[in-house]
Input
Amino acid sequence: MPVFDEVVWTKPAPRHGAPDFSRIADQLRAKPGETAIIAEFPTVVASGSAEAASLRNAVNSGRLGFDDPSGTFRASTRTVTERDGSKCVRVFAVFDIANSVSGTADEKDSR
Output
């Protein structure tokens, strides 16, 4: 590890902050039943697959704004090979509206 003889003065690095997952969740809610790619991580980065899996698990467990009493968010990951031969892990997600009809089959027949 290179060490400087003298410090280098600089401004703080800009903060990138966390993505606004509530906007992504809103977009999925607007088109229930349709699948969207919500993130893509390069596999050349050692943490790419782990980050994709972490986001998939957050969506599936209703964290990071992916919670809604009117339905369920589901996510999956797929490794994709691009035309140039590079690989990435994509996170796919969908919002499914909960079944609005409840009750037993007998109750439904009597309606």
Summary: The longest strand covers residues 71-81. Residues 75 and 93 are 4 Å apart (CA to CA).
